[in-house]
Structure formats: structure tokens, C-alpha cells
């Protein structure tokens, strides 16, 4: 088994695309981007709530980009509601954690979508995010902007409502940002999309342990061509101590999970960071929509 994992690790390290049809599929379909600009209009949905939260939110969006403190992280960018400068409101935050080599500038549509729902969404150009270090630095930058009087973001960050979302290696980085980084205690909820299987991640020298993640976690993956299979997802789900939900999207592959499940990702973040009770019904109540959505399988809910 260990020899197999070493071989699998080499294959993954040489090219994650070979397992998930990742760069070929999304890159070809979206002009080099990893999330199509029109995905909110083209992704199929299987429930009313999923469709409602996949659609664009009520805000127009803008962005702010600055150099990152470390060269390998490229730049830090915040997408935010366009009415933020004229508003006295504070906005909840979503920290995005990149997949392997999938820079924030390669999936701006995801940031824009979340920002349209009233979030400040921050990302960077780090190609290797598994430790959560660049996510922690990104959050530190945002908190500093919130405390700097001449910053556009001064006083606009709702520091009590910060979440994070990561895909692939970034799905690993989500757990390490929460459990291993200095500001991990500031997060209120998380989403891990197609995180690398724990055994494979160990072989790739990017270990993680979800057991200490007591905040609510949404765990989603594809039903095929993914870097984590059902049994690996179940082990993560069982290890999580706090409120949690899990499902696999049918007919999707690894790369598509960056954006395909965004209706429920947005609903999860709105529920936990903005108190949206309608969004909560996707996961809770007598008939949670996710459990009956024909586009999802292997659903487990403990919210």
C-alpha cells in the first residue's frame, strides 16, 4: 500500500491534471481560467436553494490588489461589494486557499460571485498553500487594512465573522490554516473542496489532521476523477468534531469542484457568517435540500 501511495504521489506531483482532467478541461473551456466567467449561469443545479445561491448576489463588485510580503505569494487581492466605500457597514470575510498552482488570478469569477453576496473575499498567488501559511498572512494583511485609517478597508471588516474556503491542496490548507497557524482561532466556518486524501497528502509531505477543526465544516468532492474517494471523505467527516456536512457531486471531476458546487458553498458561508436562515435550510431542518438533490450523493449531515 505504501509503495502504491508513493507512486500515486509522484503521479500527482508531476501533474494533478492527469487524475482530475483539471487543466485540460477547465483551461480549455475558459480561456486559461480555472473557473469559467459564466459558471453561475451555466452550471446545472438540482434544487431551488442551490440555484438561488449560485446566481449572482445583489452587489456589484470591485477589487484591490497589493504586493504580497513574500515574492512566491505574488500579490494579495480583495474583492468586495462596490458600495463598501460609501457604507458604514462591516462585511464578513472569506479567505480563499488556492489549489496546486491555481493562483487567485486564475479563478476571479469565484471571488466576484462571493463578493456579490456581501463578502470581502481575499486571495493570493501562492502556488503551494498546504501549510496554511499564506492564508494566515493574507488574513493578517486584511486585519491590518481594517485597522489602518487611510485604507479603503478601514473599519469595514467584520472580524467576528471570518470563514475560509479551499480547493484540492487548498482543501488541505484550510485545515492547517485553522489548526496550525497563529490566527486559526479567528475562523468561524470552513469549506474544503476535494481535499487531497490524507494518505496521499502524507506521501506528498503535506500532512493535515481535521480532528481539531471544531468550527462548522462543509466537505464536498466529485464522485469521479478526484484526489479523494468516498472512504477518504468519510474518514475526514468522522474525524471532524463540530457541525459538519458532506456530499459528492455527481458527474463532476476534480477541477470542476472549484466552482460547480458554489451554490451550496455560498449558502454555507451565508448561513454561518451572515445568519441567513433560508440558506441554512439547504443543510438543516426536516427536509434539508442537499439530502434530496439528485445531483449529489453520499450526503451526510450533522449540523
Provide structural commentary.
Residues 42-200 form the PET hydrolase/cutinase-like domain. Pfam families: PETase. This is PET hydrolase/cutinase-like domain-containing protein. With 303 residues, the protein is of the alpha/beta class. 36% of the residues lie in helices and 21% in strands. The chain is built from 13 helices and nine strands. It has helices at 2-14, 17-20, 22-29, 39-42, 48-54, 108-116, 133-146, 169-180, 198-203, 230-239, 262-274, 277-280, 289-292, and strands spanning 61-67, 75-81, 91-97, 120-124, 157-167, 187-193, 217-222, 244-249, 296-302. It has a nine-stranded mixed β-sheet with strand order 1-2-4-3-5-6-7-8-9, sandwiched between helices. Helix 10 links the parallel strand 7 (217-222) and strand 8 (244-249). The longest helix is centred in the middle third of the chain and has 14 residues, at 133-146. It is globular and about 50 Å long. The two termini are 34 Å apart. Mean pLDDT is 91; it is low at 1-31.
Q: Based on helices, strands and strand pairing, what is the structural class?
A: alpha/beta
Instruction: Identify the strand order in the major beta sheet.
Output: 1-2-4-3-5-6-7-8-9
Q: Count of helices?
A: 13
Contiguous low-pLDDT stretches (5 residues minimum) are 1-31
Tally of strands: 9
Span of the ends, CA to CA: 34 Å
Amino acid at each position: 500500500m505504501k509503495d502504491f501511495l508513493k507512486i500515486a504521489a509522484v503521479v500527482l506531483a508531476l501533474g494533478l491534471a492527469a487524475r482530475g482532467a483539471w487543466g485540460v478541461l477547465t483551461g480549455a473551456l475558459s480561456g486559461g481560467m480555472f473557473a469559467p466567467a459564466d459558471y453561475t449561469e451555466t452550471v446545472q443545479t438540482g434544487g431551488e436553494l442551490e440555484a438561488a445561491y449560485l446566481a449572482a448576489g445583489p452587489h456589484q463588485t470591485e477589487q484591490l490588489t497589493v504586493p504580497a510580503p513574500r515574492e512566491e505569494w505574488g500579490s494579495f487581492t480583495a474583492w468586495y461589494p462596490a458600495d463598501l466605500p460609501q457604507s458604514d457597514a462591516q462585511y464578513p470575510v472569506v479567505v480563499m486557499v488556492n489549489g496546486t498552482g491555481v493562483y487567485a488570478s486564475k479563478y476571479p469569477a469565484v471571488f466576484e460571485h462571493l463578493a456579490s453576496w456581501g463578502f470581502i473575499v481575499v486571495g493570493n498567488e501562492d502556488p503551494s498553500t498546504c501549510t496554511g501559511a499564506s492564508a494566515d498572512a493574507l488574513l493578517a494583511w486584511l486585519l491590518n487594512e481594517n485597522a489602518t485609517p487611510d485604507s479603503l478597508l478601514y473599519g469595514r471588516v467584520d472580524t467576528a465573522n471570518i470563514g475560509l474556503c479551499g480547493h484540492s491542496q487548498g482543501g488541505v490548507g484550510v485545515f492547517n490554516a485553522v489548526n496550525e497557524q497563529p490566527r486559526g482561532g479567528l475562523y468561524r466556518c470552513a469549506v474544503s473542496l476535494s481535499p487531497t486524501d490524507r494518505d496521499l497528502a502524507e506521501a506528498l509531505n503535506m500532512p493535515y489532521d481535521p480532528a481539531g477543526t471544531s468550527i462548522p465544516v462543509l466537505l464536498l468532492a466529485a464522485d469521479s476523477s478526484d484526489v479523494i474517494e468516498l472512504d477518504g471523505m468519510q474518514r475526514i467527516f468522522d474525524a471532524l468534531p463540530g457541525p459538519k456536512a458532506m456530499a459528492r457531486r455527481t458527474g463532476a471531476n476534480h477541477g470542476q469542484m472549484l466552482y460547480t458546487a458554489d451554490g451550496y458553498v455560498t449558502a454555507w458561508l451565508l448561513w454561518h457568517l451572515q445568519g441567513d436562515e433560508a440558506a441554512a435550510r439547504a443543510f438543516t431542518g426536516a427536509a434539508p435540500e442537499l439530502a434530496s438533490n439528485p445531483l449529489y450523493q453520499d450526503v451526510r449531515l450533522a449540523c
